[in-house]
Design brief:
alpha/beta
Amino acid sequence: MLNRAARYYPIIRELLGHIGPSGRVLDVGSGPFGIGEFWPYPFIGCDTYFSQRPRKPMQAVRCSGTQLPFLDHSFDGTVVSDVMEHMPPEKRREMIAEVLRVTRKIAVFGYPCGPNAFALDKKLFEDYQRLKKTPPTWLEEHMLYPFPTEGLFEDLPLHWKKKIIPNESLEFHYWMMRKEMHRPANYLFGFGLATMPRVLELLLRRADHEPSYRKLFVLTRQDALA
């Protein structure tokens, strides 16, 4: 639970700062919840498969992130959180192009970035095996491909401006994920998020520094459409 807050809180701040709560938002690779755990406004969530019944305020659409069934510039803001590392490397730029096609103002891509983040997840995967616990599906999938790097956004179209935000230091991410292997810690984190979300958000912001596990790539449109 805390790990989802750690990755979504900074994304929510960027969305609110650029398009506000009334902006039309798309969450690509949302799963059944997506940003809806922390974004109380209606949004479209899309994925190739929903493991559970999608939860409001999300309106679910089943599709591939490389073939979005939406018109150009359909959304004020688009979120792609912890999706790129699950894709074959040859498909990643195709996903970026498709997301930018449907986005009018801001697109936020967040993913575990580079070999140090991959090495940390490999260590976490080995911890699960050593403790004879079943690794979560997302962690098993993280072992399939090298993690994308900052170079994924080197050749953006000229009308897009890029800002990079570090998200979760390597040390904090490993500590948090080790804690979330155990049920009492999950209950404690969930209680904290339910009773004092602003305090936890401020504490999580202090962990957003280099060397980071994840990076957020905030792309803002600079032409007349923005």
